[in-house]
Design goal:
Number of helices: 5
Strand content: 15-25%
Order of helices and strands: EEEHEHEHHH
Largest sheet: 3 strands, antiparallel
Number of strands: 5
Shape: globular
Structural class: alpha+beta
């Protein structure tokens, strides 16, 4: 299980777009909130994507809630591969992992997002949301959910994320 978290914002950078010749494209943003939605994402070698949304920036408590969500969906022992973000090393998170020996933790190198296939997963969702203009938090959540639903149907893309990260995976189980 590859795990990471990401944030979605109404202030995300805009992408290139088009407009009629001689007119500027208009994309109206309705708020200046920095982080509207935080999402914890788990990606398995079988191509399954698990996610849990939070209405603010994630802290240790939210990481524990996300891990509980994963435990409900993945029975038995499993390996958790994640980066060395400070949020993953919080005392509460460490205590939680100590109480749950069925979760075996493997750490990625200190800063190497390019070797985590999950980074490409949420990067793809963000790229598809570049010029989206959701007006409310529920609309933002709906757009993010649609993005992950699209990826669930695109096993070829998920396999490409593993290849891009340098992992030799011939197929998703």
């Amino acid at each position: 299980m590859l795990f990471d978290e990401t944030g979605f914002s109404f202030l995300a950078p805009l992408g290139r777009t088009w407009a009629p010749r001689g007119q500027r494209p208009l994309l109206r943003r309705v708020t200046k909130e920095r982080r509207v939605l935080s999402t914890a994402i788990g990606l398995t070698i079988s191509g399954k994507i698990f996610k849990r949304h939070f209405e603010r920036s994630m802290r240790g408590e939210e990481v524990i809630q996300a891990l509980e969500h994963l435990r409900r969906h993945i029975p038995g022992r499993w390996i958790l591969i994640w980066d060395r973000a400070p949020i993953h090393k919080r005392v509460k998170v460490t205590e939680y992992l100590t109480r749950h020996p069925e979760i075996i933790v493997e750490w990625l190198p200190p800063y190497a997002p390019e070797i985590n296939p999950e980074e490409y997963c949420h990067g793809n969702v963000k790229r598809h949301l570049k010029n989206a203009t959701p007006a409310t938090r529920p609309q933002m959540r709906q757009s993010v959910n649609r993005g992950f639903a699209r990826l669930r149907r695109r096993r070829d893309l998920l396999l490409g994320f593993f290849h891009q990260a340098g992992l030799v995976v011939k197929q998703l189980w």
